[in-house]
Amino acid sequence: MTAYDYDLLVIGGGSGGVRAARVSATLGKRVAIAEESRFGGTCVIRGCVPKKLYVYAGEFAEHFHDAAGFGWTVGETSFDWPSLVAAKDKEITRLEGLYRKGLENAGVALFSSRAELVDAHTVRLLADNRTVTADTILIATGGRSNPHSALPGHELCISSTEAFDLPELPRAIVIEGGGYIAVEFAGVFNALGVKTTLVYRGREVLSRFDGDMRSGLHKALEARGIRILTETVLEGVRRGADGRLHAITSGGEALDADQVMLAVGRVPNTDGLGLDRAGVATDALGAITVDAFSRTSQPNIYAIGDVTNRIQLTPVAIHEAMCFVDTVWRGKPTAPDHEMIATAVFSRPEIGTVGLTEEAAARAYRDIEVYRAEFRPMKATLSGSAERMIMKLIVDAGTRKVIGAHILGPDAGEMAQLLAIPLKMGATKDDFDRTMAVHPTAAEELVTMYQPSYRVRNGQRV
Ligand SMILES: Cc1cc2nc3c(=O)[nH]c(=O)nc-3n(C[C@H](O)[C@H](O)[C@H](O)COP(=O)(O)OP(=O)(O)OC[C@H]3O[C@@H](n4cnc5c(N)ncnc54)[C@H](O)[C@@H]3O)c2cc1C
After folding, report:
1. Which atom of ligand 1 is found nearest the CA of 312?
2. Model pTM?
3. 64 vs 331: CA distance, rounded Å
């Protein structure tokens, strides 16, 4: 083992890579990590963290408006985009510093460089063109926005990465996509007063979510003034003589905008990584294929996080990192558990979800009960907002287990996190029923829906 420079070399200093490197070093391993951009990776630098900060920024517009219903007179308000960008930059720089410090304190060697595999034990650091060797290599290079190269004019468009740092707030934006990143950014720009158009090839946004969440959000986005063109794609983007962009839709419409953002999926960062030279196999999409323990086709090389295209979420990358540590260093082979992962969409209104959608449950189970409540949140009674909240529990009628929970409305993400615990533990509907409500909250609906709204037997609603 000492023949190598390091016991472990991690490629990629994002959510998964940083955790694996830091914990491995605390176990006494000689660890190095290479990061070509900034430590913290997608989540901290250009993903979850800045996104949530921008969502908060957008919410103020609504708070100012709602305040009148509660007796407040809010004076003239104004918003300054560069101030938000600067404040965001300051925060992510602080977080990046914490990530670096955590690694350094654990004794990890940090390389600010792109790394490429030379063979199964050797990595070239491009910044100073030297090679280092390691007994075990962990690839945690994450993913990047799909550039949609087939779209004429795609080079005129931005991705979520550039959207965070636009020099000025656009007056109008067209966003192509219907996934969570597309709807979250549509919500942010709309809240900040930008004329926002969402172009989506499906019939309703968020294709893999529960149908009620999809239609509820879809309606709410439109009610907030976001124009959604469904069953539509962009066929080209060009810059007009006036300097503005014109996005041409499959419906033949020319949408004028200052920015066109593409949010049509993410691709794994494996290009030019030297995987062939190291004997690491990829799938048709370029994602690294791994076994249940995140081991690649090359036995001493592992891969975790978005680059493996399993479930592209920060907590999942971190969990996979901890399983890697258990498997490789602690002698406890541990396969990541990808069941019952709670997740949130920070759209306006928010979605929180855990477990099976009604549609998936109806396919997987012979008999399910659906408990559904739709109501106006208490705050809306005085603020005057027409927005509705939806809560849903999906129960396997055979075992009484709650197999899915879905919420649309304020704080849905926070609720999903807490619901994930009983669902993971296998709680039954009877456990929910005997749980005392917290009053007055929206969440109390989750323990007071005593009668099923309907059942789905053999795929048929009864
Ligand atoms: C806009 C947006 C919003 C998101 N919001 C959420 C959210 O709310 N909640 C959530 O859970 N997830 C969210 N995600 C997803 C989350 O960011 C990712 O799932 C997570 O960051 C994956 O971690 P990772 O370690 O696999 O990769 P990353 O965090 O992407 O880190 C990979 C790192 O590797 C580096 N790298 C790549 N190639 C090389 C190389 N050859 N040499 C050296 N370094 C290299 C990259 O620069 C990067 O820093 C969001 C993503 C985006 C884009």
Report:
1. 19
2. 0.97
3. 55
